[in-house]
Amino acid sequence: MSAWDYLRDRLPSLLIRAGAHLLVLVFLLAFRVPSQAAAAAVLIPLFGAVSAELLEYRRRRRFYGRLRTNLDGLDRKYLLSETLPEPDFAEARILSEILCETGRSMCEETAACRRESADFREYIETWVHEIKLPLAAMELIRHNRGCGVCGEQLDRMEDCVENVLYYARSGSPEKDYLFTQTSLRRVFSDAALRHRAELLERGVSIRTEGLDVTVTTDAKWLAWILGQLLSNSMKYLSSEREPEIAVTAEDKGDRVILCFRDNGIGIPASDLPHIFDKSFTGKNGRTRPGATGMGLYVAKKLCGRLGHGMEAESAEGQYTEIRLSFGRDGWSEVLREKE
Amino acid sequence: MKILIVEDDPVLRNELAVLLRGAGYEPLAAEDFTRTLDVMRESGADLILLDITLPGMSGEALLREFRRTSDTPVIMLTSRTSELDEVLAMSGGADDYIPKPYRPAVLLLRISAVLRRASGSSPAERYRDAEVSAVRGSVIRGERETILTKNEMIVFRTLLSRRGEIVSRDELMTALWDNDEYVNDNALSVNVSRLRAKLAQIGYPDAVATRKKQGYVLL
């Protein structure tokens, strides 16, 4: 609150007071009171009034100034009521009460929403685990009775179910992951095994190099992320050459870089900055079926929660390369020594 | 080899039994879940497949109790993927852990791996009167030795571990992919025919038989 704002706000009352003082002066002079006495009678209250105003102004400035600083310092503004400065005048007290009440109601509301979405997420997890029972049974029945034709559809169903699970997890604040020293070779072959039928059917050849390196990560999450990359590559194969996926790892001392490169149709330069955005499908997604715009978004989010970097590079018509980086900090060293 | 299945879902239990029987094991099924622990102790199985969510006592608690008196290998099966389960299962003494829905071929692979581990490092693997040397990557019969490539060795040892039974192409493929060898159908056929030729060199021309639409048998 600037001095000018305050003055403008108080203008009517100040004008009335000034008028009253003027009237008193006229009155005193009309009664022929000595001019010094008249001046004193007017100036003393005037001095008092100015001091009072100054005092008022300072109080307000202090209160609102603090309020503003607190607000600026908060990243969740609705928590302002929790940081209110001690109100030292009536208006501030009223304002504080109002803010407290609205703040409380807001917190209740957000807590309810959070609870609801946590419940929902929990239900989704339970559901996923329930649906896996009949899926596992069907998988066995297919193997035992040899109805191979429905196999691919079953695989698709399983993938969809897994995707739901990891989407639900990517947003959950709970830490339901487990870091271990994980061999990249092991994780990648798990992911490749899951997508084997599809990879073979599309004639994709796989080349790996340098995967005999361990990183600190959650093996299951990483396997799912690599599975997403595999199924993405298979969606955007180029018809001009033999499809190939090269997975290589490089140990850079302080971190390990995993390069996942395909020779598919690539990503247009204008789309590249957005491929990790939610629901973004881009030019490729518009011309080919099966793009949801969720795969890379969730993969990147999971990577973020695991503390891994994920970036993409591509030349349209030539290749797409996704690079994951795994940090090697002191903590992962501790883990390694423990094992 | 006897394998005890502790799984409360009847459909899954039956199909697992069919799968295991097909792979040459002798499946036993626990059906009374009021005294699962006793069933596990009395079964005399060589390996136990244990579901984690069971009526009554949970799989983890069962395993902990079971481990006090027995070191029979146990593979946990579960649909819950939360890592807490995994930690508990591992520290509770499970030998492996397979999440549902499992690929049957992967399940069989893990079972044979755990059984192999449990039987101790089998001295030298033998095929008829030849010695299979994983270290040298070769099969040695008397004076004659034939060198196998990594892929041929994986195929050969997979067939050898189930000698006399039909091993499907799917299972061979799974074994190869599980070992970081991402071969396709043609390459598998090539590997099998090279393996045949190499075994013929040391005097086993009829070692690998083809069963049409089913797979291969090591005779």
* Approximate shape of chain B: elongated
* CATH fold-level assignment of the largest domain in chain B: Rossmann fold
The CATH superfamily of the largest domain in chain B bears the name Response regulator
Secondary structure tally: strands of chain A: 7
Please summarize the sheet with the most strands of chain B. Answer: 5 strands, parallel
Radius of gyration based on Cα positions of chain B: 19 Å
Number of helices of chain B: 8
Question: What name does CATH use for the topology of the largest domain in chain A?
Answer: Heat Shock Protein 90
The CATH H-level superfamily of the largest domain in chain A is: Histidine kinase-like ATPase, C-terminal domain
- The percent range for helix content of chain B is 40-55%
Strand order of the largest sheet of chain B: 2-1-3-4-5
- The radius of gyration over CA of chain A amounts to 35 Å
Assembly context of the chains: heterodimer
Biggest pleated sheet of chain A: 5 strands, mixed
List the helices and strands and how they pair.
The complex is a heterodimer of chains A (339) and B (219).
Chain A: H1 3-30, H2 35-73, H3 90-145, H4 151-170, E1 180-183, H5 184-194, H6 196-201, E2 205-209, E3 214-217, H7 219-235, E4 244-251, E5 255-262, H8 282-287, H9 295-306, E6 309-315, E7 319-327, H10 330-338
Parallel strand pairs in A: 2-4
Antiparallel strand pairs in A: 1-3, 4-5, 5-7, 6-7
Helix pairs in contact in A: 1-2, 3-4, 4-9, 5-7, 7-9
Chain B: E1 2-6, H1 10-22, E2 26-29, H2 36-42, E3 47-51, H3 59-69, E4 74-78, H4 83-91, E5 96-99, H5 104-118, E6 125-127, E7 130-133, E8 138-141, E9 144-147, H6 150-161, E10 166-167, H7 169-178, H8 185-201, E11 208-211, E12 215-218
Parallel strand pairs in B: 1-2, 1-3, 3-4, 4-5
Antiparallel strand pairs in B: 6-7, 7-8, 8-9, 10-12, 11-12
Give keywords.
heterodimer; A: 339 residues; alpha+beta; Heat Shock Protein 90; 3 domains; 10 helices; B: 219 residues; alpha/beta; Arc Repressor Mutant, subunit A; 2 domains; five-stranded parallel sheet; four-stranded antiparallel sheet; 8 helices
